[in-house]
Amino acid sequence: MAKIVYGVAGQGFGHATRSQEILKYLVSQGHQVLVLTYGQALFFLAAEFEVFEIPGLGLSYQDNKLVYWRTIYKNASQLAKQSKNWRKILRRFRDFNPDFVITDFEPLSALLAKVQRVPLISLDNQHQLTNTKIELPWQYRRDLLADQLAIKSMVWGANYYLITSFFETKITKPKTFLFPPILRQEILKLKPQRQDFILVYQTSDFDGIVKELKKIKENFVVVGFDREEQVGRLQFKKYSHDEWLNDLANCKAVVGNAGLSLIGECLYLGKPYLAIPVAKQVEQIINAVYLQRKFYGRFIPYFSQAEFADFMKDHSKFEANLKKYRRQDNGAIKKKLDEIIGQ
Question: DSSP code of 83?
Answer without folding.
Answer: G
